Amino acid sequence: MIDFLREAAQVKPSRNQLNWFDMEFYAFVHFGPNTYTDREWGDGTEDEKIFNPEKLDCDQWVEAIKAAGMKGMVLTAKHHDGFCLWPSQYTEHSVKNSPCRKDIVKEAALACRRGGIKFGFYLSPWDRNSKYYGTPAYNDYFCNQLTELLTQYGDIFYVWFDNACGEGPNGKKQVYDFPRYFDLIHKYQPEAVIFNDFGPDIRWCGNEAGTARHAEWAVVPSELCHYSKVQTGPGPLAQEGSLAYLYNTEKELGTMANILYSKGLVFTPSEIDTSIRPGWFWHQKEEPHSLKRLFDIYLSSAGGNACLNLNIPPNKEGLFDERDVKRLKELGTLLKQEFSKEIPASVNKEEGGGPTQPVYRITTEKPQKNIRYVVLQEDIAQGQRVESFRILAEFASGSQYPLYQGTCIGHKKICQLQDPFAQQNPLTDDSLPEISTIKVQVTAARGEVLMKEIRLF
Ligand code: FUL
Question: Is the beta carbon of 204 within 6 A of some atom in ligand 1?
Fold first, then answer.
């Protein structure tokens, strides 16, 4: 058993996955015929002429995205209705037959480049318009479209595949040839990461509400991510049971008890994808979520060993709705307010903790009343190891006060001690003495803990 845990501790990310972790927060952009029909899923019969963004301004999108602190954009080049936001030579169902005639993918990619953020795309395999859908010829059609997107728009950081697989216009379902799609991406954009519900590079978190797991492991059973590379042998209980039941909606994915039954582990971190509004596409009647809700989602995703892909839908004119632009600015301001002023402190490992249970002592230069966050980062390039930890305050008298208990750390764990939205925070209570020492105590890990950063804000 111990050998297996040591092996689990050695499961490592690729260079592309590490770069993706550093993106932390980027924007989804859902745009297409649904924007004009007030629907979420088009059926593929929509007239191309309805797609008419008269004031299209992708620089306005990029400006708003950057104001929130996001570092990239992922555009729905084609949604389930099959309509292409670029003039694909393989179909007539595209912008080329719309009154606008613009290549939206190009406009968006160029705006991202001008604004200094990365560009990626969503391409829906489910296509309710294509006459090829449900036949082997569809995989050729899809690969042709994918090749256009991979070769005509500069560097692509991310290709996002939706796993939905419904019926096409002829009533048939398609068998998607994902390995063939992945090969094309490796060929034309070797630095792009690939999202799919089950890997290879990034997996789906299992919901669209922005809810992260209490322990969001990047090292998970290959039974879930069958497109990812297996990096270990079987767990000690693999012969006694099976993880065939695993799905993305499972609460435990990658925790110690769960991996023991696996045939082998993979490194496939989770992305939290959600929309700033209830729907993915723009609807006049919908309002953006509250600042608090978005901030909390950020903390639990970008601050919970995942990345946050937050959707902002352009309206019929081709602009981000002013209500969303305002909310994004507020979010960016709040993130700056909370995370731009690091509290100067020194970090020392205490003697005697052992490799898997280290204790770190963080001493601030001046006593503090207002420590709001402890931000922890493992050296994830070497693997993800911490299973659980606790944080304590230590007062001059020597007495201790528990501040936080957590599970995994991984790329980044933001431990929130005080909520900027709360009326009263326990730590600013006058009866409590000021804090000058904080202890981070790892209570369980799979191998030697390699902590990269511990910072206070
Ligand atoms: C889902 C789709 O069905 C939704 O329309 C949306 O695009 C979401 C991101 O993925 O599977």
Answer: no
